[in-house]
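Q: I'm writing up a methods section and want to include an example of the input and output format. Could you take the sequence below and give the corresponding predicted structure tokens, formatted cleanly so I can copy it straight into the document?
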Amino acid sequence: MNVTYGVERHLSAGEFVDLLHRSTLAERRPVDDPETIRGMLEHADVIVAARVEANLVGVARAITDFSYCTYLSDLAVDVAFQRQGIGRELIRRTHEAAGLGTTLILLAAPKAASYYPHIGMTSHPSCWTIAGNRAARGHR
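A: Here is the clean output for your methods example:
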């Protein structure tokens, strides 16, 4: 199997949502809200895609300042292609694109929490969030 990787600034919303479903990440993403999905893609600083024969099998989407921190907000790999090193390579290429001097940060999906230590990431005990108001999305 030949996996190709590349930074893709203009990943389509439809292709992204399809992959979210095939990766199980759709359970925690607003896949039924096309406007939010489009905004997630449009405002991402780094999007790295993994493809097999032009078919999207993995994606990493990140927000970064390219200097200090990089928030890896989505890491999705098609279930049929997991456990083949694609996620690890997407993380590596995302960090490289954002700058290896940045600290890479992510919030693990519950099912994936045991994966990250396996690839050399360390857990951080202090993370807090304020949930977004879906009704207010799109208003700045």
